[in-house]
Amino acid sequence: MKVGFVGWRGMVGSVLLDRMVQEEDFKNFEAKFFSTSEPGQLFNRKIKFVRDTILLDAFDVECLSECDVILTCQGSSYTSAIHPKLRKSGWNGFWIDAAKTLRMDDDSTLVLDPVNHLAIEMALNNGVKNFVGSNCTVSCLLMAIGALFKEGLIDWVSSSTYQAASGGGAGHILELLKQMGAIHQSVESDLKTLTNTILEIDKKVLDQQNKFSDDEISCFQVPLAGNLIPWIDHDMENGISLEEWKGHAEINKILGKNHLDKLNSIPVDFSCVRVGTMRCHSQSLIIKLNKDISLNEVEGLIQSANKWVNLVANTREETIHNLTPMSVAGTLTIGVGRLRKLSFGSDYLGAFTIGDQLLWGAAEPLRRALKYLI
Ligand code: NAP
Q: Which of 67, 136, 272, 280 is catalytic?
């Protein structure tokens, strides 16, 4: 089996390759590596079971169509440009994708196998060829509280997100780091001498944030360091962002429900905010249960849903150490904590969840989808 990889150099692609190396996935197929920017160059990573190889042209449809599977983490513009051409050329291979482009298409299946493995198997049996990872906050949320959906316990969910800079890609995280450096530089001498008052230092920081050039904010359009941005992805021009729209649409699709069917879909509302963390997306949840079940039962269901959930006791000590981006970065752990009944009523549950959006939120479901296909 020939598997072509596109976008392996980016944030998601790099994490994917690392996971595949860890799991020795490359022994199961012949890998080909494509590039949109450097075709003809040598593939510069040494990977066991992968022969030295030259990067192929990711825009060469004929070359791509020699693959049985194409796995792309390149992004939505690439998918929009290449996927229709490939299909039109008669290519009937499997397309596995991290991008949003094909997610809601009728002929694509969203992949998050700990939650919807039956749907994935059914799709394979029914000849589906497009398998797409869902939005990162959607995957992390379902890995955390999927059991409550599965048990039919949820009336609706509201999620306020705290999304890391790396959610935007490699360029975004580099931009954040450069801004952090520039801000630190602007007050470095003050931090050494401590002669200026805290308000003078604070003012200098704000001045620096305000004077970043267009180049220095080209990814986020405004400074992210020392700031936050309560809007992610396009403006849907109805008061919500595309990132927020994906919450309801994709969660319902994974649950096998039509998001447009007001009677049968489960209302999910997201408020999506970009914060200056490196990686890992956090979500503060309000869950309206349709019956008053005990916290013990809720914890039992969440804990037993999958082996990656780490239930964090709702205490200060446990929370500040084990429910932070730092505590799960680079791991498959999904932290779930701050579980408590809210003052609105005993059927209102509060929770906080955190997961590495590059792993369960992106690379890992794709890696596992590829294993399913093989
Ligand atoms: P990314 O880091 O920007 O990488 C995408 C491509 O950008 C790379 O394959 C590379 O293509 C090029 N690139 C340009 N400058 C680069 C640099 N300095 N370092 C590495 N690559 C660079 O994007 P991504 O975050 O991996 O996202 C890929 C897709 O996954 C997108 O559709 C995104 O929406 C989706 N996704 C992302 C996340 C996330 O948390 N980041 C989560 C879920 C889904 P060439 O090698 O061809 O030049």
A: 136
